[in-house]
Design a protein that fits this description.
heterotrimer; A alpha+beta (388); B alpha/beta (262); C alpha/beta (350); A: globular; C: 350 residues; alpha/beta; 7-stranded parallel β-sheet; 8 helices; 18 strands
């Protein structure tokens, strides 16, 4: 057991922090206000390898562990939740499944440019009638000769329209399981620009407003047979594996948002005066801050533990990290919501004003309790692990 | 081509300078960073390397063993080799002795171009770069804002208060970098992990070439500190409530004169 | 190769000229050199280096040079490190000064270290104070206390520390001196220079840089981030028209006007002038915060200024927590009077 970051990890953290402060923070208000996807920031992150952190070097990545990746999302999210989720969705939800389940040809074709950041990735599982419940999925894939033909739609897709490569799940047939006919799900890689693949409306969101959230529409969208990711019918497993990892990314995002709000609040209460003294001198403020900091720290330990577990899994696939990832995501998301809400409260009237940024952090925090499995779903995952 | 970049680890003053209860600087409590002008010099070197494949960058620092950190950072940004010059007998050096030491190290290396930062944020002297060039008998261009390689020559935009000169000199030469010479560059995550796998060359006194003991360390420094004191920590200063505007103005004028502003 | 301490006499200054105009720093150095020379009972010599510059010698005499050594050569037309270093180092070796002062300008900070390295002596950078005194300051057992040393005081660490430095064993004692700190003397318009010409060989070698182009900067729009002195106004100034009194103060003291966010939001001033977290971060030598309450977001953009002077009528304004000098009072009365007195002080100095 070691709670001390290695020198490498400490330096990586300082790199992400430095980058976030200089390149991301100055644009955070504007990105939120205009809902503009921060394309230039993404290009800069690509240049410095931030889009391929946990990918082996032979595939154009940085060859780092999941902890390094989690720290990257954490530090970015401290100053801008939007930027955090762009990296998280790209890495956890698109890069990871191709890296894990892709053939050598698929890795060369997609993983290498994704890891280098030449291409951006996204993940399409959710549909209007189906979130975590995969049996509700309507999008269909039919094999016609050398091509799969996709029809249907996906919704709430992060990095939608901005991404070049999409990992898409579709019903590829029916199988009998325990006497019941079940939908068979498969995973596919679809590139932007493929005929029949278009984008619907852009969602106007409460938070992470600079991230591009779109509906994906497939109308007789034909993709090569070789775009099938993993075995036919293994889509559900691929999705579940991917979401386990994705939860670490979102947990890191939530953690970062909480840390950012906490930092702001500490600064503020030291400066802000009421009744002749800094509000930080009031015991109520002090006690609340103590709780906020303690919970944030606990969240960090859970997130890092899950990331390190995933690192162990990469060396030894017998290690499981799904429960740790779910705990980290559940807890960090709830802490983020609580800490940002209190941060707004302790900023008083200023907290309600855009320029002071804590209200944005509160709006950004909310989504972390919802996407990639709501807090309720995390509890299901955790309890299922306990009771199995 | 081969580039040597001199870098220094300095306390970070950006997050505010820390003081001990007695009012003296608490250096131990301050984080250290790569000196900003030196970083700009390294960034310029990396840019040259990117434009001229085959270029090799060696970073050199003189300091305590913990200056290893700043060398790792340079490696993670894209330097190829790193040299740490550290020895107790080198401590307490002024710019004369520091430039002797660094020149003694650089003589062991191959170079076409030596880059130093214009000045370090702890000493603010701007003297070490030009003095290294003198020891190595190289042409120097200080205050470089842009640099371009043309064959065996460098073309440098050299900044003055009210103008700039475009200068051309033949390599080998030394330039001192203004912050403007660099463009913000970062390490890469993978570069960091590689940097800690790279061996840093450590040199002591005996490894310095063509340097006399009498020119090194505290004893070899022509300048001696007669007195050093820290300014009192910044915080709330004085506040006066004058009885009349005149009294207020007299107070301000007095302070401005005391601080040599007027 | 170094000079013998006992052979060195005289206080020398490098009389920086550009485009055959003497830089003000030369006169400032002469003013200080005169005091130091008086303490030592020695003379002041100005070293004038350039091409066709002999005509500038009289002005140096007028500001206090007892003698002007002129090194004149076509190779010295524009400043370049090597020929200038060669000129100054040669003059030092020939005339053996005890003290050599150079302006801490973009030229002096390049020339000084190169020359000091060449002649083997110490150099103290960016001095703000020079005195003659003993080294060590207090007698110490087992150490000779040397009399009449140049004590060079300089700030370091971004102004957070201050050190006094001596160069007891090598000559000349060299310092670069920050412009604007030393006082020049009243010019004696009748003074004529006692000129000594120093002929040297300037055969170009590999260290002579070739000048491809010289571009003089045109007067730029006031960049508040680059200003040495900022006169910053907040909502307390009251109206856009009333910023006039700040502009007058800025003009008198050689500063630039900036403002707080409230002023920009009210449409009184453009965004380019805004200091603060959402505006520009500034770090001038002097920051006047006038009618600025000192919201955190403003303070974040200016707290690293060297000297912060706040004028505000609200005694509990947070700006006073960061101000070095806080004055509680009415800016409408204080600022115009301050401008008037600064003008008088400047006029007296010029």
């Amino acid at each position: 057991m070691d709670f001390q970051l290695s020198k490498e990890h400490a330096m990586a953290r300082s790199l992400f922090k430095d980058f976030a402060e200089k390149e991301v923070k100055p644009r955070a208000i504007e990105v939120d206000e205009t809902e503009e996807f921060p394309r230039d920031t993404v290009e800069k992150m690509a240049k410095y390898g931030f889009l391929g952190i946990p990918v082996p070097k032979e595939y154009g990545g940085q060859g780092c562990d999941p902890l390094t990746y989690a720290m990257c999302v954490e530090e970015l999210s401290k100053v801008c939740g939007t930027t955090g989720v762009i990296v998280s969705a790209h890495t956890s939800l698109c890069v990871d499944p191709i890296m894990t389940f892709g053939t050598e040809e698929q890795k060369q074709k997609w993983l290498v440019p994704l890891a280098k950041g030449e291409k951006l990735g996204a993940f399409g599982l959710t549909e209007p009638g189906a979130g975590t419940d995969a049996q509700g999925m309507q999008t269909k894939a039919v094999l016609e000769g050398d091509e799969w033909v996709l029809n249907g739609s996906k919704c709430f897709i992060t990095n939608g329209k901005e991404a070049d490569v999409y990992v898409i799940f579709a019903v590829s047939g029916k199988v009998e399981k325990r006497g019941k006919m079940m939908k068979e799900i498969s995973a596919y890689v679809v590139e932007k620009g493929t005929p029949g693949f278009t984008f619907g409306t852009k969602e106007n969101k409460m938070g992470i407003r600079g991230s591009s959230t779109y509906e994906l529409i497939f109308q007789d969208c034909r993709i090569p047979k070789d775009n099938l990711l993993g075995q036919q019918g293994k889509g559900f497993n691929i999705a579940m594996h991917t979401l386990d990892g994705g939860r670490i990314g979102i947990a890191a995002q939530a953690l970062g948002i909480a840390e950012g709000a906490l930092e702001r609040t500490i600064e503020y209460v030291k400066e802000r005066k009421q009744f002749g003294r800094a509000i930080g001198q009031f015991q109520n403020t002090q006690f609340q801050l103590a709780d906020m900091a303690t919970k944030t720290q606990a969240a960090q330990l859970l997130v890092y533990q899950a990331a390190m577990k995933k690192g162990e899994y990469q060396k030894d696939p017998k290690v499981s990290y799904g429960m740790e990832a779910a705990m980290a995501k559940l807890y960090a998301a709830e802490v983020a919501m609580e800490v940002t809400t209190k941060a707004v409260q302790y900023h008083g009237g200023y907290g309600y004003i855009r320029e002071y940024e804590v209200e944005r952090m509160m709006r950004d925090a909310k989504i972390t309790e919802i996407y990639e499995g709501t807090s309720e779903v995390q509890r299901m995952v955790i309890s299922a692990g306990l009771l199995k | 081509m081969k580039i040597v970049v001199c870098i220094k680890q300095v306390p970070d003053t950006k997050g505010g300078v820390k003081f001990k209860p007695d009012g003296t600087l608490d250096r131990a409590a301050m984080l250290t960073i790569m000196n900003p002008d030196d970083k700009a010099g390294l960034e310029a070197a990396i840019k040259i390397k990117n434009e001229n494949p085959g270029t090799e960058i060696t970073v050199v620092t003189m300091g305590l063993p913990k200056a290893d950190d700043v060398l790792r950072e340079a490696l993670a940004m894209g330097a190829d080799k790193a040299v740490l010059v550290t020895d107790r007998v080198l401590g307490g050096a002024d710019t004369w002795a520091t430039s002797q030491t660094l020149a003694g190290a650089i003589r062991n290396l191959e170079y076409d171009l030596v880059i130093t930062g214009r000045q370090a944020i702890d000493g603010d002297t701007a003297q070490v770069g030009p003095q290294i060039s003198e020891r190595l008998d190289l042409p120097v261009i200080s205050y470089a804002e842009e640099i371009k390689i043309e064959g065996d020559y460098v073309i440098v935009k050299r900044q003055f208060e009210d103008r700039y000169h475009m200068l051309k000199v033949k390599m080998p030469c030394l330039i001192t970098a203004l912050a403007e010479l660099g463009e913000d560059m970062y390490m890469t995550p993978g570069g960091i992990f590689d940097a800690y796998q790279t061996e840093v060359t450590v040199w002591g006194r005996k490894d310095l070439k063509d340097v006399e003991d009498s020119n090194l360390g505290l004893n070899g420094s022509p300048t001696k500190i007669a007195k050093a004191s820290d300014r009192v920590a910044k915080g709330a200063g004085e506040k006066v409530i004058p009885d009349s505007p005149k009294e207020a103005v007299d107070y301000i004028i007095g302070k401005l004169a005391e601080k040599h502003v007027i | 190769m170094s000079l013998k301490v006992e052979e060195c006499k005289g206080v020398f200054i490098f009389a920086q000229q550009v485009d055959n105009k003497v830089n003000n720093i030369a006169y400032e150095l002469l003013g200080k050199a005169k005091d130091l020379a008086a303490d030592l009972g020695q003379e002041v010599t100005a070293v004038l280096i350039g091409s066709d510059v002999k005509g500038l010698a009289d002005s140096l005499a007028q500001y206090g040079a007892d003698r002007v050594i002129v090194v004149d050569d076509p190779e010295l037309k524009e400043y370049r490190t090597e020929p200038y270093a060669h000129a100054l180092a040669s003059v030092i070796e020939k005339y053996k000064p005890e003290i050599m002062l150079i302006g801490a300008t973009a030229i002096g900070r390049d020339l000084g270290p190169r020359v000091a390295a060449r002649i083997h002596t110490g150099l103290t950078a960016d001095c703000t104070q020079l005195d003659i005194g003993d080294f060590p300051l207090q007698p110490a057992p087992g150490q000779e206390q040397k009399k009449n040393q140049l004590l060079m005081t300089r700030p370091a660490f971004g102004g957070n520390t201050i050190a006094t430095i001596a160069c007891p064993d090598y000559r000349p004692q060299m310092a670069t001196v920050r412009p604007g700190v030393m006082q020049k003397r009243e010019a004696d318009k009748s003074a004529k220079a006692n000129i000594e010409e120093c002929k040297l060989d300037f055969t170009p070698n590999n260290k002579y840089a070739e000048i491809l182009e010289i571009v003089k900067s045109v007067s730029n729009v006031a960049d508040i981030a680059a200003a040495k002195i900022l006169v910053s106004g907040g909502r307390g100034v009251g109206s856009p028209e009333n910023f006039k009194i700040l502009e007058e103060l800025a003009e008198a003291i050689g500063g630039t006007v900036s403002c707080s966010r409230a002023v920009v939001d009210s449409g009184w001033k453009p965004k380019e002038m805004q200091v603060g977290q959402t505006g520009k971060t500034v770090r001038p030598h002097v920051y006047f915060a006038i009618g600025i309450s000192g919201a955190i977001q403003h303070v974040a953009g200016m707290e690293e200024s060297d000297i912060i002077i706040a004028i505000n009528k609200d005694e509990s304004a947070p700006i006073f927590d960061v101000a070095d000098y806080g004055v509680v009072g009415d800016l409408n009365q204080i600022v115009p009077e301050l401008t008037k007195q600064i003008k008088e002080a400047m006029a007296a100095k010029a």
